[in-house]
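Run log // design_07
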């Protein structure tokens, strides 16, 4: 009878202990977020090269595609030809300016000499008036040449700006992948026509996923930025516990999302937190639920 009583007590103790263990709740609950980057076209044209497919891994700055730039290169050739014409015009203006400057320098020397002769009575008033008129006319011609020179320079600057703009459009026709990551969704195929702003594909670094969870106001004092936490997810063999780093805490409260249960369910307002979790083994998936325990 004693043996039966002891056995019964032991079974009840184990049951109570197991029940208590099951009732232990996590400090926060959440889901892994979709933090993908949407890569869009920055220029219009036909995709003459495109090597993106769902599931492939792309490196940062790797060329993912090329948009046809034939028209842009032709436009640049026209602009370069116009630049040559402007350069020729600029040289002609500079040449005229140099000739007029020499003439003006010579006239000024003669003007100075005639003024001295007129003062000494060796030159007439007409000679002095003529040389003064020639100096004024030549100065006016110099001013006109300067106006032409400024106009040519402005035209040259405009062409240079258009060439830079065309080069920028050619550069943006090369689709460079922005981050190291895995392509999640692909929207286009090679040979399709794309327009500026059209989404091409989404890519995300799945080696590190972001868990967005929620805590109550009373838990705010128990968390801080860069705090190490334990993240628990369901796996084939029970649960998997991973290390995470809390890197963001919301400054505003919000109503508890319907799919989230907090430690204190009676509270309607919660604060969102974000945790970086290493996913080098690839067991974590976007949208997967997880629980958090603060250390």
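design_07 sequence
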């Amino acid at each position: 009878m004693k043996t039966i009583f002891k056995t019964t007590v032991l079974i009840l103790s184990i049951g109570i202990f197991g029940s208590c263990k099951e009732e232990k709740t996590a400090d926060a609950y959440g889901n892994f977020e979709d933090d993908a980057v949407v890569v869009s076209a920055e220029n219009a044209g036909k995709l003459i090269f495109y090597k993106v497919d769902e599931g492939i891994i792309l490196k940062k700055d790797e060329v993912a595609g090329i948009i046809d730039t034939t028209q842009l290169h032709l436009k640049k050739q026209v602009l370069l030809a116009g630049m040559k014409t402007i350069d020729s015009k600029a040289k002609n203006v500079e040449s005229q300016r140099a000739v007029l400057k020499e003439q003006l320098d010579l006239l000024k020397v003669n003007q100075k000499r005639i003024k001295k002769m007129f003062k000494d009575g060796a030159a007439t008033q007409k000679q002095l008036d003529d040389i003064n008129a020639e100096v004024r006319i030549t100065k006016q011609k110099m001013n006109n040449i300067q106006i032409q020179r400024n106009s040519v320079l402005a035209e040259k600057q405009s062409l240079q700006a258009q060439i830079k703009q065309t080069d920028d459009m050619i550069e943006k026709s090369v689709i460079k992948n922005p981050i190291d990551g895995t392509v999640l969704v692909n929207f286009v195929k090679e040979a399709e026509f794309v327009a500026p702003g059209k989404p091409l594909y989404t890519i995300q670094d799945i080696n590190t996923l972001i868990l967005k969870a929620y805590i109550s106001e009373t838990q705010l004092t128990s968390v801080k930025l860069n705090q190490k936490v334990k993240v628990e997810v369901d796996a084939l063999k029970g649960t998997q516990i991973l290390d995470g780093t809390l890197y963001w805490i919301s400054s505003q409260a919000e109503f508890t999302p319907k799919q989230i249960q907090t430690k204190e369910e009676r509270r309607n307002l919660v604060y969102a937190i974000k945790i970086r979790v290493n996913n080098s083994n690839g067991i974590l998936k976007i949208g997967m639920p997880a629980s958090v325990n603060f250390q």
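Residues 1-23 have pLDDT under 50 and may be disordered.
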